Amino acid sequence: MDRTELVTLTNMCMIKKNNNILVLDRNDPYWPGLTFPGGHVEDHESFHDSVVREVKEETYLDIKNPRLCGIKQFYDENDHRYLVLFYIATEFTGTVKASREGELTWMTEEELLQHRLAYNFDRDLLVYFNEEIGEHILDGQRDELF
To answer: What span, in angstroms and rounded, lies between the C-alpha atoms of 83 and 107?
Structure first.
């Protein structure tokens, strides 16, 4: 029995400064709305290095000591597993600057929840904001948090 499968590896990072969170208003036509910076893990790249690189590309910030806080998994349109590693970073240097991904804004958690979020991002936020939840599974009819 083969235990391998095609998997897309990605990350997303909530950057916190005091009571504010850096949010990205994505201009992607396939997944528009507010979310956190992140992107794909490159071939032979560590998860840590990928989140540091993606945050730098999308925000111009250099994050330090990002902490893995959860994971999301679903199946894409080709029925391949898609994993999103969720990180939180509270240490960083640099000045925020928007990229081609979209505009960046500092918001409180309450302000974030009052805006248009990317599809299903409200469920992802539960993983970030509740330490008892570590996984979001989205699979057809299934949308569960563990």
So the answer is: 26
Strand (E) positions, 18-123?
A: 20-26, 33-35, 38-40, 62-64, 67-75, 81-89, 91-93, 102-107
Please count the CA atoms within 13 angstroms of the CA of 4 that sit on its side-chain side.
Answer: 1
Is the model's pTM score more than 0.85? Answer: yes
Interval 81-90: pLDDT, tens: 999 999 999 9
Q: Give the whole-angstrom CA distance, residue 124 versus residue 143.
A: 11
Q: Which domains does the chain have, with CATH numbers?
A: 7-145 (3.90.79.10)
In this structure, what DSSP letter does residue 68 have?
A: E
Place of tokens 């990350």: 11
pLDDT tens readout for residues 32-47: 999 999 999 999 999 9
What Cα–Cα distance (Å) separates residue 128 from each residue in 34, 49, 82, 121?
A: 15, 20, 19, 11
Q: What is the pLDDT of residues 70-106, one digit of tens each?
A: 999 999 989 999 999 999 999 999 999 999 999 999 9
